[in-house]
Design brief:
Keywords: Cell inner membrane, Cell membrane, Membrane, Protein transport, Transmembrane, Transmembrane helix, Transport. It is found in: Cell inner membrane; Membrane. The chain is an all-alpha fold and 248 residues long. It has one domain. The protein has 8 helices and no strands.
Length: 248
């Protein structure tokens, strides 16, 4: 009995890659680069958001339970984003002097300093999202361009061969359509990741605003907005200094 011969599939992904010309190879590599870049942004931003969420939990556990703001700041880890906001607020409350700052009320001076820090953190949170939006909107068209180019080459090859049977048309055109599928494969995760990260950024931004509002109230009046006023022993030194400056 003669051994069975294994026939190579002429229409698989391997055959598709071998038949690509320079333009098709460039389109394929571009889609691969776009996919890798979008996944890199998604994973790194998820890591950053996870760290910010942990920072917020650390603030509730250690910062607001301290006797004063300085002790609360020292309880936070060195890379805690909320620590930077608190330090900027304390620094603004303690250095409200000079010809320019005399013209600005204390609470406005502290507000500007706090929200400058919040805007800096928010700006870092938004980094990379524009890349996801760009990949999500352009990847399908890049894949479509690869499909159009592949069909164009397939039709030229068929016309030169002088054969227009179904088996000669279906294979090349089907392989060309793979580019459209690859474009969608790149675009869909980018769009979903963009929307997901944007929603998580919004939640973290709300937490930053709540923390900033409480810190602002503490620095100006010595009490948080959402809770009862602390005892005299628990009031921060910076808040007392800020209150004294306001009374002047």
């Amino acid at each position: 009995m003669a051994p069975e011969t294994v026939q190579e599939n002429p229409f698989g992904l391997e055959a598709f890659y071998r038949q690509l010309d320079t333009v098709g190879t460039g389109v394929l590599y571009l889609l691969v680069i776009m996919s890798l870049a979008s996944w890199y942004v998604i994973l790194t931003k998820l890591w950053d958001q996870r760290r910010l969420r942990k920072d917020y939990v650390e603030v509730h556990k250690g910062f607001w339970t301290a006797g004063n703001l300085r002790d609360g700041i020292n309880k936070l880890s060195k890379d805690n984003a909320f620590k930077m906001v608190a330090e900027d607020g304390v620094r603004a409350a303690q250095h409200h002097e000079g010809r320019l700052t005399d013209q600005i009320p204390l609470h406005e001076w502290i507000t500007v300093s706090l929200y400058r820090s919040v805007d800096s953190i928010t700006s870092r949170m938004q980094n990379g999202l524009s890349l996801l939006a760009t990949v999500g909107s352009t990847a399908p068209f890049v894949g479509l361009f690869g499909t159009v180019w592949g069909i164009y080459n397939a039709l030229i090859s068929i016309s030169l061969a002088g054969q227009a049977s179904l088996d000669k048309i279906a294979g090349p055109i089907g392989e060309a359509l793979i580019m459209t599928a690859l474009g969608l494969f790149v675009a869909v995760p980018a769009v979903m990741g963009y929307n997901w990260l944007l929603r998580r950024n919004k939640d973290i931004s709300e937490k930053l605003k709540y923390f900033t509002a409480d810190l602002h109230s503490y620095l100006v009046s010595g009490a948080r907005v959402e809770g009862a006023a602390p005892t005299a022993a628990a009031r921060p030194a910076a808040g007392a200094a800020a209150g004294a400056a306001v009374r002047k």
